[in-house]
Design brief:
- This protein has 260 residues and is α/β, with parallel strands linked by helices.
- It has one domain: Divalent-metal-dependent TIM barrel enzymes (TIM Barrel).
- Helices cover 35% and strands 15% of the residues.
- The protein contains eight helices and eight strands, in the order βαβαβαβαβαβααβαβ.
- Strands 1-2-3-4-5-6-7-8 form an eight-stranded parallel β-barrel, surrounded by five helices.
- Strand 5, helix 5 and strand 6 form a beta-alpha-beta unit.
- The ligand O=C(O)C(=O)[C@H](O)CO binds next to loops.
- One of its GO terms (biological process) is glyoxylate metabolic process.
Length: 260
């Protein structure tokens, strides 16, 4: 049975961020993820995790200048030094938070720019991250994003991410499969799950088309959860969705999976 992680960036927005740890624990979650921890001292977040008996299972490297449309700098030629600073900072936080996995954000490839150059830049920076994280047993994941969320992001299909994982040639770089994006871009989710299973390390879920709770829309998540069990997936499943109304009211789907 999947191990579900509350995504505190998307869930429990009814309360301030630092109160979401308690809310998630009260709702029955044992694991949490969120996009970026950097607004708070790592020690303060670790104290929250400990206070509510939660394990942090994922967070991301910094996104760069979101206002300017950036979504990661590690794929952007000329920003290598900044990328390495982001990676070093992510390592600092991962060690304090005892978080086993970091998503390294690649970046947007502006129209007219060489995708090949961005891809090679990302590969080089991932190798840097791999070397830094390896001694601490921390793994890296890459995620492909649908154009309606982030147009011209370096990785759109799962094959885009698989290609980079292969080219990086490091044994601590894996795939984060977000079924919301995968359904929007390519569908065929059960066969896709089979195809990526050897490098599948983190999963995220949300309904399609509205990115709400996994109990509506065009994806049959109970079937997907059984599929993940079938392939022996032992990672986490991040609940990265926008609640229809109130987070807790929308968690009825979770009742069947909550570890008592
Ligand atoms: O956008 C998503 O689906 C993510 O999981 C990343 O955290 C940010 O792109
Ligand atoms: Mg995601």
């Amino acid at each position: 049975m999947p191990k579900f992680a509350a995504n505190l960036t998307m869930l429990f927005n009814e309360v301030p961020f630092l109160d979401r740890f308690e809310a998630a624990a009260k709702a029955g979650f044992k694991y949490v993820e969120y996009l970026w921890p950097y607004e708070y001292p790592a020690e303060e977040l670790k104290a929250k995790l400990d206070q509510y008996g939660l394990k942090q299972v994922l967070f991301n490297s910094l996104p760069g200048d979101i206002e300017a449309g950036e979504w990661g700098v590690s794929a952007i030629p000329g920003r290598e030094e900044e990328s390495h600073k982001h990676i070093d900072l992510a390592l600092e936080y991962a060690l304090v938070l005892q978080c086993p996995t970091v998503l390294i954000m690649g970046g947007v490839v502006p129209p007219g720019e060489s995708r090949a150059k961005y891809k090679q830049t990302f590969i080089d920076n991932l190798r840097y991250a791999s070397e830094k994280f390896k001694p601490h047993g921390i793994n890296i994941v890459l995620e492909s994003l649908s154009p309606q969320v982030k147009e011209n992001y370096l990785m759109k299909t799962q094959d885009d991410a698989l290609e980079i994982i292969e080219l990086v040639e490091r044994d601590n770089v894996f795939l984060q499969l977000d079924y919301y994006h995968a359904q929007n871009v390519e569908g065929n989710l059960s066969r896709l799950t089979d195809r990526v299973k050897n490098v599948l390390y983190h999963v995220q879920i949300a309904s399609v088309p509205d990115r709400h709770e996994p109990d509506e829309g065009e994806i049959n998540y109970p079937f997907i959860f059984n599929k993940l069990d079938e392939i022996g997936y032992e990672g986490y499943v991040g609940c990265e969705y926008k609640p229809r109304t109130n987070t807790v009211d929308g968690l009825t789907w979770f009742d069947a999976y909550k570890t008592k």
